[in-house]
Design brief:
By secondary structure, the chain is α+β, with helices and mostly antiparallel strands. It has one domain (7-92): IHF-like DNA-binding proteins (HU Protein, Chain A, Irregular), CATH 4.10.520.10. It contains three helices and five strands; from the N terminus they run H-H-E-E-E-E-E-H. Strands 1-2-5 form a three-stranded antiparallel sheet. A hairpin with a 6-residue loop joins strand 3 and strand 4. Helix 1 packs across helix 2. 3% of the residues are buried.
Length: 94
């Protein structure tokens, strides 16, 4: 079974396959992730054909219970990053 692949590992694979230095590949990987992050911050979506879609999901505000005091409290709405795998990715990992 393969270990967890991180940004450094992705950069090393790109450097090896495309005759780049590890530093150049790391800069490219960082740029890709920064672009995805910036797009999500601006409320956009990032769709990568054959891989999936990144988007910001809004969790509605709701009423919760403080477990110590048993009082009702309002939990404010929040934004969360989400990822939905494409059909082809789902098929690939079956």
């Amino acid at each position: 079974m393969m270990e967890t692949l991180n940004k450094k590992g992705i950069a090393e694979i790109i450097a090896e396959k495309h005759d780049l230095t590890k530093k150049e590949a790391a800069e490219i990987v960082e740029l890709v992730f920064n672009t995805i992050t910036d797009t999500l911050k601006e409320g956009g979506k990032v769709e990568i054909t054959g891989f999936g879609k990144f988007e910001v999901k809004t969790r509605a505000s709701r009423i919760g219970i403080n477990p110590q005091t048993k009082e009702s409290i309002e939990i404010p709405s929040s934004k969360l990053p989400g990822f939905k795998a494409s059909k082809s990715l789902k098929e690939e990992i079956k």
